[in-house]
C-alpha cells in the first residue's frame, strides 16, 4: 500500500463510517431501535470528533502545496491502516447489534446491555483508532514523523 492509497482508504472509510453512524443514530429511535434520541446524540458526541479529526487532517493536506513526501514500510503499512478501521467497524456493528437484540421486546429481563455498556463499547472501539490510526493520519497528512517519547534517553544516560 502506498501513502496515497492509505490516504484514500482513510478518507473514504472516515466518510462512510461517519455518514452511516450519523444516519443510523438519527433514525434509530424512529425505526424502533431501543435507544432514546438523547442517548443517540450522546453517542454521536463520542464518535464523530474522531472521524471529523481524520477528515479535517485530510482537508488540510489537500490544500498543502507541495504535499509532504511520506515513506513507509509497505510490508506492515497496509494492515496497520486497514486493520484498525475494520476492527472498529466490526466492533461497532457487534455493539449495536447486541444492544438492539438484548433490549428487544420479549428479551429476558436483567440480561440487556445498558446504554452505559454501549457507551463503554464505543469508547473501547475508538481506543484502537486512537492507538494506531491517529498516529498514521498525523504522519500521512502532515509528513511529520511521530515523536518517540523515549528517544534520546539512552544517549543521555551514557553522557553522565
Commentary on this structure:
The protein has 160 residues and is mainly alpha-helical. The chain has helices spanning 3-27, 37-62, 74-102, 115-142, 153-159. It is built from 5 helices and no strands. The model is unreliable at 151-160 (pLDDT under 50).
* Biggest sheet details: none
Radius of gyration: 20 Å
Q: Given the helix and strand composition, which structural class is it?
A: mainly alpha
Number of strands: 0
Report the order of strands and helices.
HHHHH
* Residue-averaged pLDDT: 83
**Domains (count):** 1
Helical region count? 5
How much helicity do the residues have?
A: over 70%
Give unreliable regions as ranges: 151-160
Strand proportion: under 5%
- Quaternary state of this entry equals single chain
The coarse silhouette is: elongated
Q: Give the distance, in angstroms, between the N- and C-terminal Cα atoms.
A: 44 Å
